[in-house]
């Protein structure tokens, strides 16, 4: 009887650990796992996050077509988006080894003041380290509230990390030649 009880005390935690590891692997290395993560993210944010098509997985490369976000005071769209992401558990950390985005549009609208009558300050701090490797954005336009392109960038390439502060090891920005004035 004692051997059976001891076996149960060992087997139950071992099965739970194995199930947790399998779930972690499923989230990072399967397309259904990536879709599940996207659906959870879309339902958790304040706004509308949609995508026309998702393929691949988070670890080896996720591809999205027609990514759109609309929230309070902002509208963003990315025609093609590719990323490979590794999530560390001990300690919790996020590594984006590649992130490529093409035909990016970002439009900001006037945000009404909160109830106190003052504008809400924007701040952002990562609760865990984020390291980003090969980040490339091409065909980026920043639009004003009327939809007119106020900033046009041919390409941005960077790498670095973000936790309490943003550190960039490399940054390259290419502007259209006809917009450069000295």
Mean pLDDT, all residues:
85
The assigned structural class equals alpha+beta
Quaternary state of this entry equals single chain
What is the chain-wise order of helices and strands? HHEEEEEEEE
Distance between the termini: 86 Å
H/I helix tally: 2
Described by the principal axes of the CA atoms, the overall outline is elongated
- Low-pLDDT stretches are 115-121
Helix content: 10-25%
What does the radius of gyration come to? Answer: 21 Å
Biggest sheet architecture: 8 strands, mixed
How would you describe this structure to a colleague?
This protein is α+β, with helices and mostly antiparallel strands. Helix content is 23%, strand content 48%. It contains two helices and eight strands; from the N terminus they run H-H-E-E-E-E-E-E-E-E. Strands 1, 2, 3, 4, 5, 6, 7 and 8 form an eight-stranded mixed beta sheet that branches. Strand 6 and strand 7 form a beta hairpin. The termini are far apart. About 4% of the residues have low confidence.
Describe the structure using short key phrases.
23% helix, 182 residues, elongated, alpha+beta
Topology:
Blueprint: H1 2-29, H2 31-44, E1 48-50, E2 53-57, E3 61-71, E4 74-88, E5 93-108, E6 130-143, E7 149-162, E8 166-174
Parallel strand pairs: 5-6
Antiparallel strand pairs: 1-3, 2-3, 3-4, 4-5, 6-7, 7-8
Helix pairs in contact: 1-2
């Amino acid at each position: 009887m004692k051997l059976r009880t001891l076996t149960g005390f060992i087997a139950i935690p071992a099965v739970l650990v194995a199930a947790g590891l399998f779930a972690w692997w499923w989230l990072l290395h399967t397309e259904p796992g990536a879709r599940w993560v996207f659906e959870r993210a879309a339902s958790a944010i304040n706004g509308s996050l949609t995508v026309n098509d998702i393929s691949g997985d988070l670890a080896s490369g996720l591809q999205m077509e027609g990514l759109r976000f609309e929230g309070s005071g902002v509208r963003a769209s990315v025609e093609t988006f590719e990323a490979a992401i590794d999530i560390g558990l001990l300690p919790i950390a996020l590594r984006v080894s590649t992130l490529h985005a093409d035909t990016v549009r970002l439009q900001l609208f006037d945000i009404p003041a909160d109830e106190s009558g003052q504008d809400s300050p924007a701040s952002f701090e990562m609760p865990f380290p984020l390291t980003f490797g090969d980040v490339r954005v091409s065909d980026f336009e920043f639009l004003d509230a009327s939809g007119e392109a106020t900033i046009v960038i041919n390409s941005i390439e960077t790498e670095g990390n973000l936790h309490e502060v943003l550190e960039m090891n490399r940054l390259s920005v290419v502007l259209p030649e006809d917009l450069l004035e000295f």
